[in-house]
Amino acid sequence: MSTTIFQAKNIVTMDPNNPQATHVAVQDGRILGVGDYQQTSSWGEHRLDKSFAGKTLLPGFVEGHAHLLAGGMWKFLYVGYQDRIDPDGRLWKGVLTLENVLERMREVDAEMPAETPLIAWGFDPIFLMDRRPDRNDFDSVSKTRPIVVMHSNFHLMTVNSPTLELAQYSASSNVDGIVKGDAGEPNGELQEMAAMFPIMRRLGIDFRELGRTRDAVEAFGRVCNRVGVTTATDLINDLDDEAVENLRDITGTDEYPIRLVPMLNALSQTPPETAKRAVAIKAKSTEKLHLGGVKLLTDGSIQAFTARLKWPGYYNGAPNGIWNIAPEQLKTLVDTLNQSGVAMHIHVNGDEAVEAALDAVEYAMVNHPTPDHRITLQHCQMADKAQYRRMKRLGVCANLFSNHIYYFGDQHAAITIGPDRASRMDGCRSALDNGVPLAVHSDAPVTPMGPLTCAWAACNRLTASGEVLGAEECISVEEALHAVTLGPAYTLKLDGEVGSIEVGKWADFAVLEDDPFAVEPSKLKDIEVWGTVLGGVIHKIDD
Amino acid sequence: MTDIQPSLPLTIISGYLGSGKTTLVNHLLRNANGRRLMVLVNDFGDLPIDADLIQSRDGDMINLANGCACCSMGGDLFNALVDVLDQKPWPDHLLIEASGVADPARIANIALAEPDLKLDATIALVDAETFENHADDPLIGETLTQQLAVSDLILINKSDLVEAKAMENVSFKLGTIAPNATRIETQYASLPLDLAVGLELASSEKKAEHSDDGDHSAAYAKWSISYDRPLDREAFEVALERLDGRVLRLKGIVRFKGNDTPQVIQLVGRRHSIAAFDGAENVQNGLIAIGFKGSLDRSLLDEIFSNV
Ligand SMILES: [Zn+2]
């Protein structure tokens, strides 16, 4: 029952009763008292820890939508346009030209044993101002070793000639997605899963497996730790018995720096089976592994033109997107899960998918009213104001993809949905004004994990080209910080345990070098993270 | 030349909820007739495989006593396909029961890309009673018409439940949505195995059977021809065009003048392919076809195919 008092430069508690403090007392992993030294020391015997005397403490950030793959991807070589930091703290500078990409690959090629495939990820040819690369470019790295360069959206890859040979692709291959060059030969670019499948199968690239290994789960913990996250979701997981045991084992150690919230894939079995499984694994939860929630996938993504849009559809005239589940089936599924009290996270990108999800929720709630269900729409990028009003009435939460505004906002305005609808995308202001509980997320590894960046995007709404996209939807720093702490904690029904620095909650803190309220909103994302505290245990970022 | 292993034929079964996909799968598994079928389904939820058929069940896989198997994809088609292809021996034929909103063209594209698979056919089912309502539904109408537009065969199921006039409307509408598909009316999705997964080629030892045997003798008829000479490719392709929907499926092995490699001919509905024969066994040269009893004109087929 030893007590530690952490002294900080200041503590932003996110608790309106006690918004600022300098000391927080911790006992048995939980917060015993918050205030100044006198207030916190009156509990009696304690140890005063001054590690954070020059730092700002915030509640540990909560990432409400990420994937364990954000740890697993680093098994491969990063060749993206944006800077990224790997789980071990190495800064991978963005590659700005094709020559940069090839140089980086040649360095790695020189070190690798022969025959081993060289697999890279994060590639974004639209940002490279020179021409679109083809197999000849990667043949210049190696003519013998298979080379696969996954694009950042995971829907395309560019490969070298030995890789094309593996799949027996040739001029006579007549398959959608095998892109041909001027001479009619495959030029190395492969689009969508069907064309990529033979390559992935032969080289053993398996994204599901990549998110399951011990290495991946541990790396994910380090990814979170580097950006101040102490509670994170894995938003789709098969969660078979073996996976559950593994996760209990890995998260169970004192060294593991986060509380993990994996969501069961609701589409991989029948609705009653999903309900039964979710209830069964919920009982296996621990303090650091929270099970029982499920993820439902409705449509695809806006940038891949697979999201389901209401009239007038895509700005460039692309046909409407795809359903992963028929709206009629979604009703049954939501109804069945709701009757078993299962927490639901529903992936919706386009506004038609939002509508279908709300129809399903309404149907389920009329059939079996459930107070405090906290069904959360994930991404929910195109919701309009009427839909936010409806979400409020139905008690539905929104976890918005604010990073999209920065990473894809320009493309959304110019190509996918046009400037008017793009300005309402990820409408944090609309959500809050209509009383919808709000969180924002990174969907790592789709965009890099970083709650301060998500908050920055929600406050400033700047696109990569520097334009402000829909200024009316900007929110304040305080609201944005809420959307990366208590907001997502609420969507996970963990707001009684984490998300603010209040007596009785877990002692989970983000340790920052600056106070987010003391910097310009435009500098929010540049605040350095020192590390975290989880249940009173310090996790300084490894250098 | 590397040692090419024959690829695994894939038939895709698509159709909206309630159209009878599961009934068709069950019917085929029951009437597999010695062929080892492997069916990938989304889940075992509605699949009423009778207990007496099941030999063993191991997680995602149900093995049947007749050599067939049924595997639950668990929402991930690609992983399921890797598992099927990595497991030897392969089944004789792979079927995928697509979800009610899946685009079969995307699945077909996998079979075109993957050297170990070959696309056999895409079959779509529609429920004669509900089809028109679903096709006009703003949320799913487009998805359904897309499913139909890329199909080789369309089964108009539950045809006994609608009036003749309504049936005509359904048929007309399908004709405009999917002009290249062949339409077949069924009840309880009872499509003969030969139509679902293709005809079996007779090996040299076993003579092709000409009888209209089986449980569908009333509706369908077969025809066959054998060759002991190489054919003229151009004339042969003209002959295939002349079929113009008169047969539902045609399969065969022939040799063309100036090419020693035997060629496999596959025709489903109005789509056909000609490819180098990759099978190891010694198969007699010839063609075999199945069609509706009323429209399969044996003497006409003899005439078309004996002069090539
Ligand atoms: Zn996601």
The fourth-level CATH homologous superfamily of the largest domain in chain A is Metal-dependent hydrolases
Structural class of chain B: alpha/beta
Strand content of chain B: 25-35%
The chain pair forming the largest interface, with residue counts per chain, is:
A-B, 39 and 32 residues
In DSSP terms (H or I, runs of 4 or more residues), the helix count of chain A works out at: 19
Give the C-alpha Rg of chain B.
Answer: 19 Å
CATH fold-level name of the largest domain in chain B: Rossmann fold
The CATH topology of the largest domain in chain A is given as TIM Barrel
Give the spatial strand order of the biggest sheet of chain B.
3-4-5-2-6-1-7-8-9
Which strand order does the major sheet of chain A show? 5-14-15-16-17-18-19-20
Report low-confidence residues of chain A grouped into runs of 5 or more: none
Largest sheet of chain A: 8 strands, parallel
| Helical coverage of chain A, percent range | 25-40%
Q: How would you portray this structure in words?
A:
The complex is a heterodimer of chains A (543) and B (308). Chain A has 543 residues and is of the alpha/beta class. Chain A folds into three domains: 1-60 and 500-543, Urease, subunit C, domain 1; 81-151 and 155-203, Diaminopimelate Epimerase, Chain A, domain 1 (Roll); 275-498, Metal-dependent hydrolases (TIM Barrel, Alpha-Beta Barrel), CATH 3.20.20. In chain A, 32% of the residues lie in helices and 22% in strands. In chain A, the strands form four sheets. Chain A has an eight-stranded parallel beta sheet. A seven-stranded mixed beta sheet of chain A has the order 3-2-1-4-21-22-23. In chain A, strands 6-9-10-11-13-12 form a six-stranded mixed beta sheet, with helices on both faces. In chain A, helix 11 (327-339) packs across helix 12 (351-367) and helix 14 (403-416) packs across helix 17. The longest helix of chain A has 17 residues, at 351-367. Chain A is globular. Chain B is of the alpha/beta class and 308 residues long. Chain B folds into two domains: 8-196, P-loop containing nucleotide triphosphate hydrolases (Rossmann fold, 3-Layer(aba) Sandwich); 199-306, Hypothetical Protein Yjia, Chain: A,domain 2, CATH 3.30.1220.10. Chain B is 27% helix and 27% strand. Chain B has nine helices and 14 strands. In chain B, a hairpin with a 4-residue loop joins strand 4 and strand 5 (69-72). Chain B is globular, with a radius of gyration of 19 Å. Chain B starts with 7 loop residues before the first strand and ends with a helix. Chains A and B meet through helix 6 and helix 11 of A and helix 2 and helix 3 of B.
